[in-house]
Amino acid sequence: MTDHDLDTLMQRVLLDSLRLDWEKQAEPEPAFVPSARYKRQAAGMLADPLAWERKRAVPVWKNIARRTAAVLLIVSIGFGSLLAVSPAVRAAVNQWVIEWYETHITYRYTGEDMAGAMPQYEITELPEGYAEVESERIDWPEQVDIVYRNEETGKTIYLNYMRMVQGSATCISIEESEILEVTVNGLDGQLFWVADWENHRNAVTWIDPDRGLQFMVEANLDKTDILHMAESVSLVESAK
Amino acid sequence: MLIFLLAALESEEDRQEFAVIYEQHHARLENAAMRILKNQTDAEDAVQNAFMQVIRHFEKISEISCKDLPFWLISIVKNEALIILRKKKKVVLLEDWDAVENGVSGITEYEELVDLFVRLPDTYRAVLEMKYLLGYSYKEISIRLGISETAVNTRASRGRALLRKYMEQEGVCP
What we know:
The complex is a heterodimer.
Chain A: H1 3-24, H2 36-47, H3 49-56, E1 72-74, H4 87-92, E2 96-100, E3 104-109, E4 120-123, E5 130-132, E6 138-140, E7 143-150, E8 156-163, E9 169-173, E10 178-184, E11 187-193, E12 202-208, E13 213-219, H5 223-231, E14 233-237
Antiparallel strand pairs in A: 1-2, 2-3, 3-9, 4-14, 5-7, 6-7, 7-8, 8-13, 10-11, 11-12, 12-13
Helix pairs in contact in A: 2-3
Chain B: H1 2-5, H2 12-37, H3 40-56, H4 58-61, H5 69-87, H6 97-102, H7 110-118, H8 122-133, H9 138-145, H10 149-170
């Protein structure tokens, strides 16, 4: 028997063992009852599998410029105690918890759920050559993804904003990024920046606590331009 | 990452095929994840992580026969569930390989061999499934399971040796 024959047989045995194992199993207890979040994710995945996978997999950046040696936990004023990296961040975080890890940052919402339909925002000052790609827009009950593309260069700008619900979180990889504290129209946020922005997208995120929304703009742009675009994100329709 | 994704799932035909795979199999994967994790949130993560693997390896997935595809997918979600368990440190590795070897004398039928593999310790099955069904390298398996590459190599070699021993000794064929 050759190695190839053995590998083929191994595949067969493993598949048959999976089948046999499956046939022996009873229904799971507790039963799988999909959450609203899971159903939304599934809808997004089916609408555009590649875009969903890209969004779910955190971006990879290069040239680590800043690392945290330990977890820094920022707790909102509403919870009393506070371990702050920046007073400006603390002031902006009303009902949010921002968890700083060595490789990523998690924004976790812990306040009451915000009700109502999603408002409509747009980037109103796009660089020349960019236009919205309607077919790649995702409108979910609590998240909107908008794609702008320059057909000539193939570069893409992403605007994402989500309404945070109890227990939800956004996770951003900070590997190989420099993290800068910024303000966007008076709202505190973070800029994730790499020097080689032509080949790697930079991102800026900020939170509007009054509206219960977290925004993110990703683009192959330098600091000044991406912040300018972020500041041009404007409400165009209060509810769809 | 986008480089290898561009080869598949760009066409409408691929997307429809992916949608069919999802509709036909998602319930099975959800149940499989729930059996292992017994936690709704964890099970949802395992299923979504499994579909991420399907999307990333869609070209290979789409070549699998309809008869075998459900169990390929179950293998993927089982391993994603195992990874979640390991990260939560809820899994204690039981490495009783001697018991497997000692308890299998007298196998004469293929079905008995299959049953033997059903009873393999979880980490051994995970390594064998990741290597022989899903095509991961030893390094990738070691990272995903949180064990050394040496440990991965040992488990793969033992599984392979077990199969070879009984194929040669008993002349058992499927």
